[in-house]
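Lab notebook: predicted structure, single chain.

Context: the supervisor wants predicted structures on file for every construct in the current expression panel, including those that have not yet been purified. This is the next one on the list. No modifications to the sequence; it matches the entry in the shared construct table.
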Amino acid sequence: MVAEPLGTQGLEAPASATPISESDRPPAHAPFDDLASDWRLRHLLDVDTLSRDEILHILSTANAMAEVLDRPVARTPALRGVTIFNLFYEASTRTRSSFELAGKILGADVINVSGSGSSVEKGESLVETLNTLSAVGADAVVMRHPASGAPWLAARTIDGHIVNAGDGQHAHPTQALLDAYILLREFGDLGGRKVVIVGDILHSRVARSNIWSLTTLGAEVTVVAPRPLLPASMTASAAEKEHPLALPAVQVESDLDRAIAGADAVMALRIQNERLRGRLLPSTAEYARRYQLTAERVANAAPHAIVMHPGPMNEGVEIGVDVAHSPQCRIEAQVSAGLAVRMAVLFLLTRGGV
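Prediction complete. Output recorded below exactly as produced.
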């Protein structure tokens, strides 16, 4: 499979994705058929098994989907006849609404199922719920679950396609893909680009997936956190870092001011209040003093640097109010990119060759 090249001018949409008028549009999903013809992956469970070409293929397809979103009527029948269930066991605004809208724009039937208000409250197991969704005709299940590894169980349970929308502290692949989309749109190529991720690395599925995707695309990743918020593999001996479950090699820093110097992009992670109230961190004020993205700190990054955050933000804790609303901030762009990326994922999985 050969991904569409991404030039230095940013993401280029595949030639086949040239917008067509409503009057010229043929039935079904013909305008995008060849985008999925070489796609062979059945599920999206994480980014750690994706090759560089596979990541770029998803993002080039997302660029084609962005053109759909720019139409006066942002609709296409590409997934007409496909039934997608959003199965969310955790609260979500951005991810769930993004997947729901992505499916509907593509013409799919989308049904939302949450842990509350469903048979889960009556004791129904995940496997039983999945079998029920399969029995009523689910072609794909987008799932968020508090247990790490739940999407892998789902992929072994039903014949439909599984998309991991976040599992425990493990992975959030579409967040990592949309972050890569933003960075490629800004810089054209990530080879040698310095990306700093600061915050609760230990508990962050966003950080883990971003580390995999960004290093695969050639970025130089630096993580910054207090030692209690770093995974053991990042503070372990060299021998332990060779463990097959270890994250890719990244630069580890405890000093944000030193790490941010010359950075092309800086990503702040949300600090959860329960971490601050516990023994992992002394106080909100102490964390903010050492690790908050302030205008003064961001000024030490490269002149063209951008600021990112997966949301929701704790303004005044991990990111300053002035930074969160500065021209360098790409947080709203990340939300918009998420829609195109999730459209691409749903399309490739359900219309691909597997």
